[in-house]
């Protein structure tokens, strides 16, 4: 018996030379693409259509093959199909609903592909017609809302979210997608919250719901009142906020786990020696790096939650007992070599039971720890554009956290100690830290460690000035809180001081190259003022008097760097060039550091001469410092504990516009290739006649 094959909507017998037969659904699509109303000859046409398994590829291809004029000729039939899809969403039979949802996805994508150059209004007219748009879109949104909130099929809910993601990402710039006006008017915000607050729904659909919410929040956010922004900012339901936090933590943990697996795999392999030598984590072959794709969509969701909702700050410190209880999603995650940026849903083993303990001694984790570990990975390599964007967004999130009073309270809480194993970039001049030797400390120590790590590891030709500025600002904001609340943090401050001095040294060594691209004096001034903060207020927040002595020791020991900096800024501030003003600000900021150096250096030299010692030990220098504080005169500098608060609209609008555009493109790609397969959906309803 001849084998029957199916390809591109055609049925053909492999042994026959006859003209191939078309599937019935394909024949019905062909009728829609005629100018005549298909229901004239067959009154049951629309009823029968939604019982047929959708052929997405054929329907989209047919739409894309038509030119604008041909499409206009069948506009009435396209409108009719769109309206009947919406009507079918209210049907009792799930198969009709599934097919209607699939058809809507194909229609929206197909019409948009054909009308990329036209305005959104033309697309609305082509899909539904101007005269019926308001009512049809209202009915569509109400049906989707009902399906998402109902206790019915999880597969239907999943498909509703896919359709909404398809609708939102149909244009690269979501703010130009005028179809979204109807999504603003007919809000599905409560439906999204319901998914996030229910453990079962959250496990199945949490990822898509969170990404959808993050995108909707960014629709024309600077131009008009976006109801999703308003509503997200006032959510105070604990279950909902914790649910959102869990989804984000699970996605970030999956990234961390994948990275760790690849790291271990390659460190144990042939290329581990080469990996360590070049300071790169993964080497696939001689010249190819392997890395795990960053997830900017979930990071954007975390940013919007932290930035917009004060109540979400409490979620950052919530422990996550639920993380090990992931169930297998309804639809499988496609196994592709490289998953599109910002779209990878967490796999079924998002967080294994092994992820919860940070190591054998610590049995809990939380969203902030997971985020800090994620940040320590993506901030290692800023040469790649996506990682640069991810690194920047991580620092923006940390900026928002560092400004929040409540966040600072739990960051600095002595009763909330954690062992946070951050990823450190392999460098030839330092050994890999032993994870088991990490102490349990307040979470702010991990934030400071992350900032120090970034400062130390990114002094390179392609200098990431913007990230350095953000990094120093975060440290400054944390110090301002410590000074204000007199928090004496037991931290290895010497590591920070050493990193800052080495940064100044790098700026001076590369003055010519860096000044061609950046105003390095802005950064130098911020670094000098951090030292001024320690000098002026250190006695209120450094852990012990000896810590304050060590600060002076470090300044005196490294005085040559401060002397060189003073010479450089003095030279530029006395010339009538473009750097005169910014350089002169650094000159004035160095007054107390220079006073310390000029006061103690002669005393140290005198001590050495009197005691016939050629080189003083640290303890001997500290003895000189302690006995000569009384005669030191410092100037009081104003505004050291003041800072400009973060403002998205005025400074970051362009960055977020480009970021959301990138996420939109990649969410759409992921939907197009991987997530609309029907087999699993229809298997669920296979008993329906």
Automatic annotation (TrEMBL):
Keywords carried by this UniProt record: Membrane, Transmembrane, Transmembrane helix
Residues of the Armadillo-like helical domain: 435-671
Biological source species? Columbina picui (Picui ground-dove)
Q: Which SMART domains match?
A: DUF1741 (SM01158)
- Recorded superkingdom: Eukaryota
Recorded hits in SUPFAM superfamilies, A to Z, give: ARM repeat
**Pfam families according to UniProt:** ARMH3_C
What is the annotated localization of this protein? Membrane
Q: Which GO terms of the cellular component aspect does the record hold?
A: cytosol; membrane
Which InterPro entries does the UniProt entry name for this protein?
ARM-type_fold, ARMD3-like, ARMH3_C
Protein name per Swiss-Prot or TrEMBL? ARMD3 protein
